[in-house]
C-alpha cells in the first residue's frame, strides 16, 4: 500500500527523474573527486581551518538542505503530500518513530558502554562541555534532517518511484538497498576498513527497505537512522570516520574490519525485524516484499493519497 498509493495516472515519470539523476550524479562525481585524494588528510585540513563544529555543520548541512529541496519538489512539483511520501497511514505515526529511535539509541548506548568497559585503552575521554554543547545543538538541528533526507530519498522517493515504474516491490528494494550502500563508498571508513564494510552499508539498506515495506511506511526507518547517526555522533568519534565531532569519547584503537561486520547484518538486524514484526503484527511477508504493485483505487481505500496536500 505504501507504494500502491501513488500508482495512479497522476504519477509523472518525467518529473520524477531530475532528483535521482542529480543526486546520484553528485555521488559519482564525489567518488571520482576523492579517489586520488587522502580523505582523512583532507578532512583534517578542513578541521584545522574551520574548526570541528563548522566542518561538521557544512558536511551534514548539505544533506539537510537536500531534505528541504526534496520535500519541496514532492509537494509543489509532484503535488504529492508529504504524508503519502512518509506513510500509507492516515497520518504520520510519531510513536513508531520514537519507539524505533529509543530502541536503537538505547542499544547503541549500551553497546558503547560495554566496549568502553571491556577495552578502556581503546578510548579517550573526549568530553569538553564548552565544545560539546554547541556541537549538541548543531547535531540536534541537522542530523535528523540529514538522516531524513536519506530515508525520504532512498526508502521514499526511489522506492515508490521505481516500484510504480516496475510494478514490483522486490526490484526497488534491491536497487535502493545497493545504491544506499554505494552512496557511502567515498566515506573514509571504506578506505580505512576496506571494501568489506560495504557489506554493512548495503545490509543496512536492505534492513531499512524491508522495514519500510513490511510496515507500509518510513516511520521506523526514520527513527532508526536518526538514532544511529545522532547517538553515534554524540558518543564516539575517531580520526578516520566521516563524522569527526566533539563527542564524549574518542576511539583511538587501530581500526580493522573482518567478518565481524556481518554480525549486525546477520544477527542484530534480524532480531530487530522480529521485534518490529511482533509489536506491529506484520503478516504476509512474501507479498509485501516480493509481490506486485497494484493500481491505486480510491474507492477501495480510506487513506488520502497523492494530490491531497497535508
TrEMBL record:
Keywords, alphabetical: Hydrolase, Membrane, Metalloprotease, Protease, Transmembrane, Transmembrane helix
Superkingdom of the organism of origin: Bacteria
GO BP term, example: CAAX-box protein maturation
Protease in keyword set: yes
InterPro entries, alphabetized: Rce1/LyrA-like_dom
GO molecular function annotations of the record: endopeptidase activity; metallopeptidase activity
Membrane among keywords: yes
Domain CAAX prenyl protease 2/Lysostaphin resistance protein A-like: 133-231
Pfam families in alphabetical order: Rce1-like
Transmembrane residue ranges: 12-33, 53-76, 97-118, 130-149, 170-187, 193-213, 220-241, 261-277
Protein name per the record: CPBP family intramembrane metalloprotease
Source organism (scientific name): Flavobacterium piscinae
